Structures are given as C-alpha cells and as structure tokens.
C-alpha cells in the first residue's frame, strides 16, 4: 500500500472511522482552544464581555475527552511485544517506562501508551561530573551539562525513513522546581498547536508489518537521513537533543501502529539484550563492533 509520510495510507485508501473521528476531534479541540485564547485576549484588552468563552472551553474539553475515549477503544489489546535493537549505546537510565505502568506517560494520546524516556548517565568511574539531578537551583542549565546531549541515536531495525525533521531549536534544560511551571505551561501551548511541537525534532521509521518507530526531541541539525531512505539496524540516524516538550536532553522512543502520533496507538516493545528498563534502572549497551 502506498504510504504518506504524514498521515499513513494514501488519500484514496480507506482510513478506519474511529481514526478519522479522532483526527477530526483533535483538530476541533485545537481550534476551540485557540478561539478561547483569542476570546480571552480580546476580553482583557477591550473590556468587552463577549459571551461564548466558557462554551469554547467546554467544546475543547469535550472534544479531547471524546478523542481519548475513541483512542482507548481503538487501542490493540494483548499485542505481543516486538523485539528490536536498542536505539542507544553506552550507559543510560529510564525515566517514564511502560515497565512500571501503561500508559507510561499517564496518557495514551500521541501513541505513547508504551513510550519510554531514557537519559544518558556517566559510566561508573568515568571522568567528569554526572548527570545533573532535578532540584531547586539553577533553574535552567546548558544542554552540554547533560551526557545525553549529542549522543548518537541508532536504527532499531532495518527500516524506511518516513518523517525526518530537525529545524526546531534546542532550548535550555527545565529540570528544576522553578522551571516546572514553565514546562507545564509551554507544554500545554505546544499541545494546542500540534503534535509536532510536542515531540520536537523527530524521526519516524517504517519497520514493516504496520509498525512504526518514533524518536522524539532530536538535536537541531543532527539528522543524517532523509525521508524515503532505507536504513539498516544500528545505523546512526540523528543525535539526542532537547526540543519540543522536554525537560532535559533525552530520547523519547515509542512504537506505534500508524506513522503519525495524532492517529496512532502505542505498541509494546522490548530491546534486545536489555528488555524494558524500569524507571530509575541503569542499563548499558555496548557499542556495535566495527571493521
């Protein structure tokens, strides 16, 4: 079947009704939130008490709730985990993980029910400071302070590149209590704009058999592949960054049953030789042999 890198099947192909409905509800919800924000801004600037603001908010919330219910109904049941190669090498630890709970990030939206976040750690005994921990000070840090920033990201299987974007800028870290409010507020704004603003710079691979791999929060300008290119397992694809809705440089990885997170359901996975690490669990992946 011919595939469109953004939405899946070509326009002439049938798209299941629940997915079309979810896409429509997502667009309606975003439109209502934007209209509500515009309504509120006009109200504040002009002092006019125009009616309809609360109706717009109710419509936005109702659209999101309906989309969430359709997603829950559409999600595959008892899908067997697909074993793929790890997308990183070196010493890392997991943050949000499907080994602890599903959905791993608290919501199923954007196909992230089985997603995992991983951050690089300084290997034991290695020179240099370790990864900065969440705390009160400083409010933000340079990305270079984190071992994950610029780490190579590898193809988890032989695949075809569907989407490859790396033009969004890398922002400073927000892994502190003072920056947490800004992270939540900016995340809400990104969610209203589009899924692309949430995942930041990202890459989607078609693994075949209706399975797609998403790599999110990539470093700006780090992509080494283009849409349509065929890649092999272990090939470097991009570098780890801090774009989109991200508190610090890290990789957000997930498998999906559709190529775009707006219409996808999450799929379970396992990394060969690693499994699915729990939150806080360290794991080490040796670099691939060369020569």
TrEMBL record:
Which InterPro entries did the record assign? Cell_wall_metabolism_enzyme, Dup_hybrid_motif, M23ase_b-sheet_dom
Q: Where is this region: Disordered?
A: 1-21
Entry GO MF terms:
metalloendopeptidase activity
Residue ranges occupied by any M23ase beta-sheet core domain in the UniProt entry? 187-257
List the Gene3D superfamilies hit by this protein, alphabetically: Glucose Permease (Domain IIA)
By its UniProt entry, which Pfam families does this protein fall under?
A: Peptidase_M23
What is this protein called in UniProt? M23 family metallopeptidase
Organism, as annotated? Streptomyces triticirhizae
Traced from the root, the source organism's taxonomic lineage reads: Bacteria, Bacillati, Actinomycetota, Actinomycetes, Kitasatosporales
